Amino acid sequence: MSIPEFLLEVSIVVISVVSLLTNLSVLLCFTQSAELRAHVPGIFVLNLSFSNILLTVINMPATFLGVAKSAKPFGDLFCSAVSFSETFITTNAMLSMAALSMDRWIAVVFPLSYSSKMRYRDAFLIVAYSWLHSLTFSLTQLMMDWGGYSHTYASCTVHLDAEEASQLTAYTTFTALFHCSSFALCLLVLCFAYLKVLRVARSHCKRIDVITVQTLLLLVDIHPSVKERCLAQQKKRRQRAAKKICVFIGSFILCFSPYVITRLVELLPSVHIPRYWGIATKCLFYAKASSDPFVYCLLRQQYRKVLVGVISRFVRKDQYFMSVHSTSSTLDTTDDNCVARIT
């Protein structure tokens, strides 16, 4: 085994473990908090988390075996099923991110009419469209028999064998349409929604800045340290929204674009994609599943509060059981000593 292959295998294992733990933590937060379940965006978050868990359980182990064996991990039927699931899951996950961005846009730009524009029924309809959209491409791939093992990516994915060169035009059209309607469409929605949110956030910050400056001018006797602290908070407030939006859009582009661009470039007959590069882009593609819980959930105060509460309850239970066990052990030892003294 070469060093690059070893590093790629370790990367897949680490990504799989982190993705499984973090996405299960999100589901745990939903089961323990009625407040989180009451929010409409929670439907999109649950859809995204389920997609990431399925990707972690089904596709990441298959890719790990493909890298370790340098060959198809299992038979043709299994590889076709894994390829079908990858197309469906990744498309559904991207559309869920786009739905979350649109929900945030409606909540920020139209706060007074949000409850009428985004209801549970609307959220379920969006999720249903996401599933239908994903099934359309995955079923097309399955019927055309374009799912198989790709040595370039060491995984079961959308792939056209060399023997099927007659279908190259149809396969090229399908691949281009698939990535345009998933990656490109979702990126466009993310940029539109979050840039609108950023504009509203900056306008609010300007109003707050004007009020802050006027207040500081009126308070003549204020201490200079307090004034500096207010100005520093004012600067952080302006940067906070921009940083969050950069994380939302930047993580999407960073994780998905290398893989998508590689898949489009390999359609050119004269281009050969190196195997290590293909697997590396696949690992980066999988890394999005492990970063989504942090980007959308676990770094928010509501989720952190619920997760900390769940962990603290488990810790208290463990401490209680340990104390009961130690007490029973002490009593047993005392009883044994008393019996020994009597005898």
TrEMBL record:
Keywords, ordered alphabetically: Cell membrane, G-protein coupled receptor, Membrane, Receptor, Transducer, Transmembrane, Transmembrane helix
Transmembrane segment boundaries: 6-30, 42-68, 88-112, 124-144, 176-197, 245-265
UniProt-listed PROSITE patterns: G_PROTEIN_RECEP_F1_2 (PS50262)
Database matches in Pfam families: 7tm_1 (PF00001)
Cited InterPro entries: GPC_Orphan_Receptors (IPR051880), GPCR_Rhodpsn (IPR000276), GPCR_Rhodpsn_7TM (IPR017452)
GO biological process: adenylate cyclase-activating G protein-coupled receptor signaling pathway
Domain G-protein coupled receptors family 1 profile per the UniProt entry, residue ranges: 22-296
Compartment(s): Cell membrane
Membrane topology designation: Multi-pass membrane protein
GO CC entries: plasma membrane
Any one GO molecular-function label of the UniProt entry: G protein-coupled receptor activity
The protein's name: G-protein coupled receptor 26-like
Lineage: Eukaryota, Metazoa, Chordata, Craniata, Vertebrata
Name of encoding gene: GPR78
